[in-house]
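Database export, one record per block. Field names are fixed; values are copied verbatim from the stored entry.
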Amino acid sequence: MNKLRHFKKDPLTARLLDQKDPLKEFRKEFHIPKQNNKEVIYFCGNSLGLQPKITFSKINHELKKWAEKGVEGHFDEDPWVSHHHKGKKTMSSLVGAKIHEVVAMNNLTTNLHLLLASFYQPKEKRKKMIIEKGAFPSDYFAITSHMKQKEIDPKDHLIEISPDENGYFSNEKICHAILTTGDALALVLLPGIQYYSGQFLNLKSITHAAHKVGAFAGFDLAHAAGNIPMTLHEDKVDFAAWCSYKYLNSGPGNVSGVFLHEKHGNNPDFPRLAGWWGQNETIRFKMENDFDPIPGIDGWMLSNANIISSVAHLASLDMFEKAGIHELRKKSILLTGYLEYLLVNNTAIKPHIKILTPKNESERGCQLSIYFYDQGKIAFDHLKKNGVIIDWREPNVIRVAPVPFYNTFQEVEKVVTLLTQIFV
C-alpha cells in the first residue's frame, strides 16, 4: 500500500516526522561527510553506506590483538579461526534464512562465480539461463564466462528478459519466460532489486516458477540486503549473494554475504569448488586431503576470513541488531514515500521528470530512480554543489536513496527544494 495520502504539503511536516522518528538517534552513530565544514545530505547509501562510528574501535581492537599476540590470535579466547561464525544470527534475520544457510566470505562477484560453478551444470537440452536485459556488468560477465567455459554459446542459450518502456520488469512476463522455456532451462539468475530502476522483484513467485520446470533460482541481492526484509528460506530460493558495502555499511569493497538453501548445503555430494576452510572443522588442521565438507554454506568457504576488514562488517551488523530490519523498513517506506509525494506534487518539477521506480511500496526499497526529460545533469550538478551526494546514471537518471539509519525527512524536503530552483 502506498503511503502518499498520509503526508501534507506543510513546511512543518518534515520536522514533525523527524521528531516522531523512533530511529532518529541512530544518525548520531554514523560519520556524516562534510563539504565546506557542513554536513552533506548523503543520499547515496545504495552505492556506499556511511561508516558507523564503532567501526574504528573494532578495527583497532583487532590490530592491537595482532600486534600483541601475532599468530596466537587465531586460538585465543576470541579466536580468529572461528571468526566467520560471528554475525550469522543477524545476517540470517536480514534475509530470512537459517543460521547455517548464511556466511560472510570473499566478495560478491567471487561468490557469484562459486555459486554458478555449483548451480550451472548444463546437461543434454537443459542449458539455458535467464537474466534481465541490462544486467549489472559483473553479473553478465560472470554468467557468460561460465557458459563459454562449458562451451555453451550465450547467443543461443542466454535469455535476456526486457523491461517495458518504463523500465518495469513484469512478474508475469518473467514467470511466463521461465515456464515457456521449460525443461531447457538450467538456471534463473536475477537481481533482488534491479540496480537501475530500484524495482524489487517477486523472489517467491520467480523461484516457484523455476522449480516448476526443474531449474534453479538464484538472486544477486546487492541492492536488497539491509534494505528490504526477505524470506529466502521460506521462499525456497536456491542461492543468493550480496555485497555488504551498500545498505550494510561495512566499507568500500568489503566482504560479501552468501545464502545457500539447506537442501543443497546439507548435501555433501552437491557440486562445488572446494577450499580448505570448507573442510570439517574437527579435522581441518590434520591437513588431510580427503574433503569432508562442513554442512551448510560453510562447506563452500575457500579460506580463512580477512579479519581486519570483516570486523567492519560486524560493526554494521551490530547496528542492525539494535535497530531491527523491520523497524528500519517502516521508516524507509515513509522516507521514500515522502520523497515521492513531494516530487509528484511539485508543479515546477513534475513536468520534467518520470519516476522509474514502482509506485507500489512492496516493489521498492529506499531508492527512487528519477528520469529527467531535460536538465538532468544540471540538476545533478546543482545538488552536488549544494552539498547533496547522490548518484548519476546514464542516460539522464538520478538515483536518490534516503537511508533510514542516517537520513531525515528534513533532508528529503531540502533536496526537493533545491531541485525546484532548477525549474522555476
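Remark 1: Residues 79-320 form a domain with the Aspartate Aminotransferase; domain 2 fold (CATH 3.40.640.10).
Remark 2: The radius of gyration is 22 Å.
End of record.
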